[in-house]
Design a protein that fits this description.
Length: about 200
């Protein structure tokens, strides 16, 4: 009973913060409401005993993606009137997508309560992180490796796109350093010793 009350409280906070993400006038406030939505979603994952997914949600989305998003929003000069111009034009499509998402969620919840399968019994030694790892590295190993390669290519492309050659900085060329010889660097000069 107490767990159900916390679940519905987190669900209400998640819905309200998600609504505020799209209705906030200031994009920084919208991003902060999105952070709140991520934290409450992580709380829901914890209630569903999916600790690894909750921690991954907080670390990846709150710790990395939202910090980057806030950095971009605060560094750019965003014209808010231009951003709001397309709101009413895109509202019908957004309503259709929203109705489809709500229908899918209702279907999943209804199947959970009215489905014919019995829920699996969770033992005390069960670890969802271990089960997720076994599933990722056995059944979905190729998909996992392909995703890793795509992320690696994206990281290399991002570095290549942001790499700038500046004329006012001095840099070293490792190839020239390796090819250097002692004769080119040091010159021995024979000088007679001074006499008093």
């Amino acid at each position: 009973m107490f767990e159900n009350a916390i679940f519905y409280a987190f669900g209400a906070v998640l819905l309200l913060s998600g609504l505020r993400v799209i209705t906030a006038r200031n994009p920084v406030h919208g991003a902060l409401f999105l952070v709140l939505a991520f934290f409450t979603a992580a709380g829901l994952w914890l209630l569903l005993r999916a600790e690894f997914l909750a921690i991954a949600l907080v670390v990846v989305y709150v710790g990395a993606v939202m910090v980057l998003f806030l950095f971009v929003v605060m560094m750019l000069d965003i014209n808010l009137e231009r951003v709001r111009e397309g709101f009413w034009r895109n509202l019908p499509l957004a309503l259709v997508v929203g109705v489809i998402l709500v229908w899918e969620m209702i279907t999943v919840v209804a199947y959970h309560y009215f489905g014919t399968t019995t829920p699996a019994v969770v033992t005390a030694r069960y670890s969802n992180t271990k089960a997720l790892g076994l599933l990722l590295y056995t059944d979905y190993a190729y998909a996992f490796e392909i995703a890793a390669v795509i992320l690696l290519v994206a990281i290399i492309a991002a570095i290549a796109l942001t790499l700038r050659r500046r004329k006012d900085t001095r840099s070293q060329d490792p190839a020239l350093q390796v090819r250097a010889r002692r004769e080119e660097r040091v010159r021995l000069v024979s000088m007679p010793s001074e006499k008093e």
